[in-house]
Amino acid sequence: MRQYISQALASLTLVGAIATLGAKPLKAQIPILSSPPTGIDSNQIEYPRPDREVNTTPIILPVPPSTQPPPGSILRSTTINPPTISGIPCDRTNRPLTEAYTLGPGDQVRLDLFDVPEYSGQYQVLVDGTLNLPVIGSISVAGFTPSTASELISKRYARYVRRPLVTLSLIKARPLRIAVGGEVNRPGAYSISLTDGQQFPSITDAVRLAGGITRAADVRQVQLRRVDNRRGCTADLWNLLQNSNLGEDITLRDGDEILIPTTTGIDPLESRQLADASFAPSTADPIKVAVVGEVVRPGPYSVSAATASATSADRTTGGSNTREPATVTQAIQVAGGITQLADIRRVQVQRITREGTKQVIEVNLWNLLQEGDLSQDVILQEGDTITVPTAVAISAPEATELASASFSAAIISVNVVGEVKKPGVVQIPANSPLNQALLVAGGFDPRRAKKSVVELIRLNPNGTVEKREVEVDFTAAVNDQTNPPLRPNDVIVVNRSGLTSFTDTLNNVVSPIGGLFTLFRFFGF
Predict the structure, then answer these.
(1) How far apart are the C-alpha atoms of 29 and 42, rounded to whole Å?
(2) Collapsing DSSP states into helix, strand and coil, what is residue 221?
(3) Of the CATH numbers 2.60.40.420, 3.40.50.620, 3.10.560.10, 3.40.640.10, which one belongs to the domain with range 287-403?
(4) Amino acid 7: pLDDT
(5) Which end of the chain is more exposed for a tag (fewer CB within 10 A), N or C?
(6) Residue 215 contacts residue 271 (beta carbons within 8 Å)
(7) pLDDT confidence of residue 324
(8) How far apart are alpha carbons 136 and 139 in whole angstroms?
(9) Residue 264: pLDDT band with limits 50, 70, 90
(10) pLDDT at 30
(11) Burial code of 413-451, b = ≥16 C-beta within 10 A, e = fewer?
(12) pLDDT at residue 349 in the model
């Protein structure tokens, strides 16, 4: 008898367990469909049965991580946690590997529920990172890849559709929000929209969007930081330029941060190579610089290669349309050129970096003239200051060579007075010698001039006046003794010869006596 009672109890327990497993959720938690949707097998969809006893046991639904319920809630997460970037994976060359795309607010997706077209369609990820889908309602997909999100949605639909087959595909990616800082011309945050068929932007695309690198950028240590990762990885854009290594031009993701550090030392030759890079700054707009020291017109200037070329071409053809970056010599041209006291071996370019530090670049323009070293003609950037110091001493041959340089003053004015054919102010090229000024003034008066010696009067920058006699030798080359180079506002005095002086003195003495004889004749004496 006891054996029969045990068997009966076991049967009742089994029936109760089966009934519990087969219980339906509450009516309010699922939609009530009056008839099966068109094209769907009625046996595939489970409907609530009002005529049956409803189990009031609460159903436990998966909750996305971004919408976790408060403590004590009956809902708890049973889904896989979304992928988090604890650090950008790097290979042995310290370059980030390509991560799978993760969904976020603004993405447009296509949901296909196999054999249930009523639930399929296009949707947009809302600002809170959720999708609002038929039947199952709101579900968070932010931070999930499309394939992971498909699995999550499939689990949610499994309560209403037998063996659901869900495919979630990205139709249009959301605009990428990135930040670019450091040595770029326009640092800040940028939004990049993607059109159909367009690839995701790379580091160089972002740098171009930020106005290109500055002249103080260290392109070998470009830092990329990704969401939830502050260590970052490093890209070597110099390797991209030199070896065409596209692996350095890393593809960006939403939320990426790019930092271009400041170089510790500027290599003028490398700067010229970087000026031709695709991510270099545009040269169409002029830059503002200051030119001080031994130039004709010191002060601030707006300089571009075109304006400098036009200044130089005014002497010949009248202009140029070049779009090369502005350089030191071009800025000096715009400032009127160097003076005769300029020390072109110690020109300095002072530059303020994005970090607020000052960099000083030493420029030797004498090497540019003598050896054609174009690396000395440093490329400028906005805010640079060019300083041309005063030379301790300049030899006459060097002064003559400087006079023909493109960055020397074009024309200077000197005064030639005394016994010349055309006395007055004459215009001559800068650093022209004394003989040339005499010839421009028409040369000596053949009857009256003292041709062996002239006087040179010079007003020095310190306010003192220098006066000396110069022996004239029209066959001599430029030298400090007989044919010195001239400076602006020099005065050359050509005195009278000895015979002319005696004659003029005699005339001054005799003229009153001659006038007296004329007066006597007038009165009849």
Answers:
(1) 20
(2) helix
(3) 3.10.560.10
(4) 55
(5) N
(6) yes
(7) 77
(8) 8
(9) confident
(10) 36
(11) ebbbebbbeebeebebebbbbbbbbbbbbebbbeebbbb
(12) 94
